[in-house]
Amino acid sequence: MLSSLPLVSIPDEDEALRPAIRNFLTDTLGPRPRHELARSWVAFDADFSRSLAAMGWVGLTFPKEYGGGGRSPFARFVLAEELLNAGAPVYAHWIADRQSGPLILKYGTEAQKNFYLPKICKGEAFFCIGMSEPGAGSDLASVRSKATRTDKGWLLNGHKIWTSGALHADYMVALVRTSGAPEDRNAGLSQVIIDMSLPGIDVRPIRDLAGDSHFNEVFFDNVELADDALVGTEGGGWHQVTSELAFERSGPERIYSSILLLDGWLSFLKSKPDVDDASILLLGHFAASLAVLRSMSLAITDLLVRGENPATEAALVKDLGTELEQAIPTLIADALAVSPDDEVPDHLLKALVYISQMAPTFSLRGGTREILRGIIARGLGLR
Amino acid sequence: MTDNILAEAFDRLLTEHCPPSQVRETESGGTSDLLWQEIEQSGFLDAMVPEDNGGAGLGLADVFPLALLCGRHAVPVPVIQTMVGRAALASAGQDVPSGIIALASGKPSTTTDGQIVCRQVIFGRDADWLVVPKEEGWQLLPTEEATILPAGSHDGLTVNMSWPKRPAGTLNITDVCDWQATGAALTATLMAGAMERILEMTVAFSNERSQFGRPIGKFQAVQQLASVMAEQVFAARMAAETGFADNATQLDPMLAALAKARTSEAAVSVCAHAHAVHGAIGATEELDLQLFTRRLHEWRTAFGGESFWFRRIGEAVLASDNNRILDDIRGILSV
Prior knowledge:
The complex is a heterodimer of chains A (383) and B (335). Chain A has 383 residues and is of the alpha+beta class. Chain A has helices at 12-15, 18-29, 34-37, 46-54, 73-86, 91-107, 110-122, 237-250, 259-271, 277-305, 311-337, 346-362, 369-380; strands at 127-130, 146-149, 153-164, 171-177, 189-195, 201-206, 215-226, 230-231. Chain B has 335 residues and is an alpha+beta fold. In chain B, 52% of the residues lie in helices and 11% in strands. Chain B has eleven helices and ten strands. Chains A and B meet through helix 9, helix 10, helix 11 and helix 13 of A and helix 6, helix 7, helix 8, helix 10 and helix 11 of B.
């Protein structure tokens, strides 16, 4: 059985970061249409990420000796919360900051840490994550991309898909097979860092239903990787990936995917002379759900600070978070349509359309709802 | 750590003196006198009474684990209500009378012939005193001369109470206390405790009960139900703890709103899923599950259901000057 989540507050020294971040974002972003802001963490803007890095806000939790800020995960929570609530275009540096950097910090050699981490902190190394393949979605252990030992390093062949940001990324951390066969499941898998400028790599954008191309297909045709491309231990890839996914699932981005729409609807309600009772109830419902989810997300942060591995708890918060993220567009659409004659601002409708279209992906990325619930059940002691 | 020692002692007391058989006996009209005597003698009832008045001077956050335990053990007497009532009386400079204190769910109504009526009083049957809110301040009504009638559920603990006129011995307290919010937050903690308990029962049952040759917990469909339950239980517990987080004796009405709204919402699917997993045996008198799910349905609506409190929160958010809902959450809906 899982123990309950602790009720914690953000420490004062971390909360103190908030005004400076908010001022910076107001100055840097300027006025932008809401449906553009709503794309926040799938929006790639290298200049923005570099200006954020110049403030010391990329790699905020990395040790100072590698160019990081040396701050606690609570400081990153405040930073992430402000970025996402402002609708900042964060995708360029997000994966490196959240996942690849911490992975290298935990499993990388000293040389790898010295090479990659300072670059990440300066906004000079953007990462993507190569996990899914055409035949390996939820069943991640069945990846077939293969890195074979050579005299000089590794020879990589294979095919990744749904790789967000791959078109612009400088590096990919990929889960590949380094020994055995697909039947060996999670044995024989390793993680390699791939320089995306190497010959033999072909990146093909995939257009999504909202007209954007943030995810991609990536083909590897006899790509020669150096010996030090391996990160962590050979054959230890599965264990590394699952602990990395706990980070991916624990952050505040798992509760704020629809926040720009919610805030847009709130300002629309505030502009009306009368607000109907159902909308007031719905607003209260959203606020209460979000407040509790935020406390749960802070609890996960606290467990990470204490050095625990809250993989099951993170899955639980993510599943509950995406449920709210998906309910927001569904219920706001209906609330607006209660009075079809109301003049709803264009920017709000565009944000609604965008979030409604993308909402199904909220419970896919980082592990599908069904997979997460399997993880929770195991954590509860079922199976 | 103090609260852990307290909670462990209280848990032992309830395990020994409030087993499901005691709960059933009380519900079926039997006495809870022995249970109450044990609780009274343990000193827990004065946990929140100021130290100067002979109590332990604990705050809401300190007694939160005790309130959860009352829910976990389906305690058939208003322990946490009496605890808070005694503290409120002592803080108002009143002598604290002995006996069981229940909370009225709202202001009493007065009939045309002058009767005072309090409806749907939870744990009212065995109460010696009833806290009743007024326009200004509140009153403590003795129940000795009250007419007490069961109000619905067959267990008979929730009652309608009436008096021909204001009874002698009524205590008038002028201090302001938001008893609706207090009752809501107290009930939310009981609900969170009860929901934790039925999640454990459901997981245990899923591993024990076999169908198609294996424990039903091995089926993905059942795993999904248990996972959704767990999510709701964890959210409910977090909300309830937030309602009790301020370590004062008076709670924050907006946090109480959050606590009651979210636990009431959670109770619906937690009860439904627990019964779905248990099947027909879950609907029997014999299985303990019903001790908790019957209470949860009753507590869900007591002191205002989820929509009542969602509206309060919605009104507050709409009235604020913030442009972002995050700032309302950080401001009025966080500890």
